[in-house]
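Summary for the steering committee. One of the milestones for this cycle was to obtain a three-dimensional model of the protein with 1,6-di-O-phosphono-beta-D-fructofuranose bound, which we needed before selecting residues for the alanine scan. The sequence and ligand used are listed below.
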Amino acid sequence: MTTFINISEFLKHHLQGEHSVALNTILSDVIEACKNITVVIDKGALTGNMGNLGSENIQGEVQKALDVITDDIFIEACQQSGYIAGMASEELVDVIEIADNNRKNGQYLLLFDPLDGSSNVNVNISVGTIFSILKSSNKKPELSDFLQAGTEQICAGYALYGTSTTLVLTAGSGVNGFTLDVDSNEFLLTHPDMQIAKDTQEFAINMSNYRFWREPVQRYIDECLQGEEGDRKKDFNMRWVASMVAEIHRILIRGGVFMYPTDSKSRSGKLRLMYEANPMSFIVEQAGGASTTGTQRILEVKPSGIHQRVPVMMGSKNEIERIAAYHQVKSKRK
Ligand code: FBP
């Protein structure tokens, strides 16, 4: 019978250096929050929270009841550690202030998307929570303190509420995945040192946006669709779950590329830099993959706003390098 090490035991040994004590404490709150969110998600329609609220979030998206419930769960659980000086959430316009007595050692910032893929929650398709942790140079942080490039992240992760609940994270020395054991309610190490295959024959993109894409993306996808008969001389498969967390988890397990490029509808893409693209890029790069806007490494993008959007293409390194190369060349394609 295989014995699995539980996440807090693992982190005690894995987290080294100046942030280890704080990260261990902050992550134990994040883990608690994801366990509480799992319970709410699993109950599904039984909770009567499957519907939309009348309100919209800063992105102009109609908020689902569960967007707000999971947001409250995450904030409540993660403001106790004393290490978090400030938070930012996809669901709230402004940064979240932490009460004085809760930020005695307030040296860290927590940014998160409490319910990624929320358009799927009432149709019982996988959804997730994404988080990113930064240093705070200010115990009473302002907006500008949050606007750090993705390279400054000290930890990032996601929880996937799918066929099982999985938590995947990096603190800058590799990527590890844990599965929630529903009997012991413990996250156990099931996916040590996750690595993304350099090559792949699988892409994920919302094809219904094809006519709005720029030429380099159309060229890349056309070649994938031409398969063996085309320049790539191999067939490609396609997937689109409409939950970024589910797509990236699949890519960590079996390779692939995930794309939400810029298009003529939304010039800067759909996904948010600070709590979607940056944490996922940190994880993907730590697992040997790559991540680009098309013209720039996502982790080097200088943020200008908490809710700013960026074009996102990430996954298997050789494919992402090919996509970035297509953005460099002025193609002669008609
Ligand atoms: P939120 O649900 O957090 O707003 O995330 C955005 C997202 O749902 C991603 O998870 C997913 O990859 C994408 O949008 C799906 O977009 P579309 O609805 O265009 O397929």
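Key point for the committee: Helices lie at 7-14, 20-43, 65-78, 143-146, 215-226, 244-254, 273-286, 317-328.
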